[in-house]
Here is the input.
Amino acid sequence: MDVLYLLIPLSVVLVLIVLAGLWWAVYRGQFENIDQEAERILKDG
Here is the structure.
């Protein structure tokens, strides 16, 4: 039972880190033009 006192805060911190990373990616424009990147893979270089 004592391990829950460690795991619950660690999981909350992990979720906050993931959300911060997603927010950063959206704020920096990483998802602005995903169709062009999908087509770029199919075209010969």
